[in-house]
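seq:
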Amino acid sequence: MKRILKFIYGVVPFKKKIFLFIKKFWTPKESIYKHLHFETPFTVKIDDSKAFKLLNGTRIENEIFWEGLTGKWEKESMKLWIELTKNSNSIFDIGANNGVYALVGKTMNPSAQVFAFEPHPVFFKNLKENVNLNGYEIELHKTAVSNINGLLNIEDYTGHTPTITVEAVTLDAFIKSNQLQNVDLLKIDVETFEPQVIEGFITALNLYKPTLLIEVLNENVAEAINNHVKDLGYLYFNIDELTGIRRTQQVEKSDFYNYLICQEDVAKRIGIL
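struct:
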């Protein structure tokens, strides 16, 4: 019976139109809407004048469809990111996955250079489709960012194999080879390999002191990041996606996923100081 119902649901036409109509009057609970999905693009609204299109295919996209861009999924991080991108001319999305952060950056600041790095072939395919869907000039790289230039084994998050081998590059090497004159903003989400990204970015980090929205899942990651940024004049903000942000004296394990590391003038500009 379950298979029959699933088949019937799969062939029902116009699901997106039906769900858009439902959204006007009611947002179902996650336990309900996680079963209400479709596979066609939808529009993601940032504010009254800015929006982008996104392919629906995973839990993240479905959650954004039902809850909005700043409704649930990484909502506090996304609110900060939206403000940060307005005055950032060189934006890096490292561990881009489906490209939501890169797409927001380009939508908020069309003149910015946006670079998106995603080494996993499945996720990179989704990233490329989303960028093409919007017709954006975002520079895409099917490459891992780390502390080495060459081949790197990473976890296969699709579960098909334990690891896959991908190309890797350091940000310092990338910045030099592309003759970039500045780096303003980075989102780094690479599943506890954030310190290796920073290690390959030491020269540019010290030179440009960019703003970092970075995932910090445990104390080891926090300690390693601290060792690299502690003398660069940064302020630190622990982001809890449920309750908001709080300033800390150093990088700690995040209350949820992410940390904001920025200079004082940036914190004042976006209204958190």
